[in-house]
């Protein structure tokens, strides 16, 4: 699925607004049949354009410490370090970046003690990690998974 047309984008917008919105309602809003909506949604799901997920509020499930960690790796070790980091359930995101840090991760912890333990006893043991720049979130202004810009 190379190109999404205007109707696909509108369907995505409606689903991002409310992932539980019935296909019949989207069909009515777009003046097409429910089958058209179902078919297009299934095609986008099959082609991995999007997926249905539950986005939990970390604070409501006991994860009160969010961090962004910039990691400097030894030359040639970036892929191995990234693969190792992916195994930790606390780590939500791992990405390679240009700039000051070779890898940036986002992770959630129940407490500052859990964060300190992760940095001092887990991160420090990973071969190829040279430095970790830990940034604790103090206040959140926006958190979204919406990539569709109307």
Automatic annotation (TrEMBL):
Which domain of life does the protein's organism represent? Bacteria
- The keyword Transcription belongs to this UniProt entry's keyword annotation: yes
Cellular component aspect of the GO annotation: cytosol
HTH asnC-type domain sequence ranges? 4-64
| The protein's name | AsnC family transcriptional regulator
Q: Which InterPro entries match?
A: AsnC-type_HTH_dom, Dimeric_a/b-barrel, Tscrpt_reg_AsnC-like, Tscrpt_reg_AsnC/Lrp_C, WH-like_DNA-bd_sf, WH_DNA-bd_sf
UniProt keyword annotations, A-Z? DNA-binding, Transcription, Transcription regulation
- Pfam families on file: AsnC_trans_reg, HTH_AsnC-type
**GO MF annotations, alphabetized:** sequence-specific DNA binding
GO annotation terms (biological process): response to amino acid
**Is Transcription regulation one of the keywords?**
yes
Membrane-crossing residue ranges in chain numbering: none
């Amino acid at each position: 699925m190379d190109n999404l047309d205007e109707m696909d984008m509108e369907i995505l917008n409606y689903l991002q607004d409310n992932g539980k919105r019935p296909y019949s309602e989207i069909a009515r809003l777009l003046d097409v049949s429910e089958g058209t909506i179902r078919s297009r949604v299934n095609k986008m799901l099959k082609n991995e354009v999007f997926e249905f997920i539950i986005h939990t509020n970390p604070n409501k499930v006991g994860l009160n410490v969010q961090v962004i960690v910039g990691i400097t790796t030894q030359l040639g070790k970036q892929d191995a370090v990234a693969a190792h980091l992916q195994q930790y359930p606390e780590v939500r995101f791992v990405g390679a970046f240009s700039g000051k840090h070779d890898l940036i991760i986002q992770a959630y912890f129940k407490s500052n003690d859990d964060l300190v333990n992760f940095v001092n006893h887990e991160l420090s043991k990973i071969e190829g990690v040279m430095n970790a720049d830990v940034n604790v979130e103090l206040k959140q202004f926006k958190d979204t998974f919406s990539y569709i810009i109307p």
